UniProtKB/TrEMBL annotation:
It is found in: Cell membrane. The lineage of its organism: Bacteria, Bacillati, Actinomycetota, Actinomycetes, Micrococcales. This is MFS transporter. Residues 12-386 form the Major facilitator superfamily (MFS) profile domain. Keywords: Cell membrane, Membrane, Transmembrane, Transmembrane helix. Pfam families: MFS_1. The chain crosses the membrane at residues 12-39, 45-66, 78-96, 102-125, 137-156, 168-190, 210-235, 241-263, 275-293, 299-318, 330-355, 361-381. InterPro entries: MFS, MFS_dom, MFS_Efflux_Transporters, MFS_trans_sf. It comes from Agromyces aurantiacus. The keyword Transmembrane helix applies. It is a multi-pass membrane protein.
Length: 400
């Protein structure tokens, strides 16, 4: 299929945003409905929580694997296939009454196609804009996922409480079908460049310079989640804030992640390496404020907002740097930042939990601060890395 010479980027980016928003809602909806799911499926709350873990593992491992297996296909076909699979997999628990075991398997599949969608969406987004706006194009997809946590999950939780958790997932299926129908009309053909075989892409995508930058993302998000995962007990024990009063802090964090991911695109275009350093420093300073002034509700609120703002602002820059450093391996490398983020989330939550078991909730913030310092060092050390000679980000359709 001949690529469209001058596609209109706005509808393409709008559809990609909608797809990432719906997928993000499906991923995180379990958090708000975990008690309803556990009761209905007759499993424990930790077992219901494993549904989130299954999604994360599917994304972290299955996403890059599916991207590797589909590197030779046009990105339009990959995106449509990912959306169709997403709809079917969510229909299993939503409409077909799947039991717990099937639900877990479905969540792994959902995470895998989500990772595939992210990688293909990044390539499609950057293909329809001039190269100097690629960071902002990537930020559109990242913002979709951030907005799903800030807005989609709270509203989805309210819906689930009103009509049941399966009803909330029915809404996800309907929204997914709507996005799929729009995607078939709007998305342009974005073929993989000739000569970009899967093994050749893997060699560039997993080059040491790419892995080093991915480590920055893992450390940054590990620092964030080591503290944010246990924000509620921190507020209760240190700040003396509990019950409904916790909600504004959670909303502030969600809003900050959405603002940061969107604004981060412009900084990625200006200087992605510098943006990673500034973002890691911002997270570090915010965590130190949280640690030293945890008894002040206002300063804690400002610190929580800043953690989300600076942390998520690094998302577009990580994606920008990875794609640039991978060169010909960019289509496969586009799936790796999401895996790095999920690895950081898992490690951060684990490290914070170990710290709490050792010395209380304040120790978790201290551990987060130490990890954040490591993220600053890693961002600084990798800032001078350059793409290999004669490699570059794939040319955009808008430049053709």
């Amino acid at each position: 299929m001949t690529p469209t010479p001058t596609p209109n980027p706005r509808p393409v980016l709008a559809v990609l945003f909608a797809g990432s928003f719906v997928m993000g809602c499906a991923e995180m909806l379990v958090v708000g409905l975990i008690d309803l799911i556990a009761a209905d499926l007759a499993v424990s709350v930790p077992a219901a929580g494993a549904l989130l873990t299954a999604n994360a593992l599917g994304l972290a491992i299955g996403g890059p694997l599916l991207t590797f297996l589909t590197t030779r296909f046009d990105r339009r076909r990959v995106l449509l296939a990912a959306l169709a699979t997403f709809v079917v997999a969510n229909a299993l628990p939503a409409m077909l009454g799947a039991d717990y075991a099937v639900f877990v398997v479905a969540r792994v599949a959902i995470g895998a196609v989500q990772g595939l969608f992210i990688a293909a969406a990044m390539m499609s987004a950057t293909a329809v804009v001039p190269s100097e706006r690629s960071g902002r194009a990537m930020a559109v997809i990242i913002t979709g996922f951030a907005m799903s946590s800030a807005l989609g999950v709270p509203f989805g939780t309210l819906l689930g409480q009103a009509v049941g958790w399966r009803g909330a997932f029915v809404a996800v299926v309907i929204a997914g079908l709507f996005v799929l129908s729009l995607a078939t009309i709007v998305l342009p053909s974005v073929p993989t460049p000739a000569g970009s075989g899967a093994l050749g892409q893997a060699r560039h995508a997993f080059a040491p310079r790419v892995l080093a930058v991915l480590a920055v993302s893992t450390l940054t998000f590990a620092a964030m989640l080591a503290a944010i995962t246990y924000l509620v007990p921190f507020l209760g024990e240190v700040t003396d804030v509990a019950g409904p009063a916790v909600t504004p802090y959670l909303l502030a964090y969600g809003a900050a992640t959405a603002i940061g991911s969107f604004a981060g695109g412009r900084f990625a275009d200006a200087n992605a390496a510098r943006a990673l350093i500034v973002g890691a420093i911002g997270v570090t300073v915010s965590l130190v404020v949280l640690l030293l002034f945890g008894s002040s509700p206002w300063l804690v609120g400002a610190a929580v907002f800043s953690i989300g703002l600076f942390g998520m602002a690094t998302g577009p820059s990580i994606q920008h740097r990875v794609v640039a450093l991978a060169g010909p391996g960019a289509p496969l490398a586009s799936s790796l930042p999401a895996s790095a983020v999920n690895a950081g989330i898992a490690f951060g939550a684990f490290a914070g939990g170990v710290a709490i078991d050792t010395g209380g909730v304040q120790l978790a913030v201290l551990a987060a601060s130490v990890i954040a310092v490591a993220a600053v060092a890693a961002a600084w050390a990798t800032s001078a890395l350059k793409p290999a000679a004669a490699t570059s980000v794939p040319a955009s359709l808008a430049d053709r």
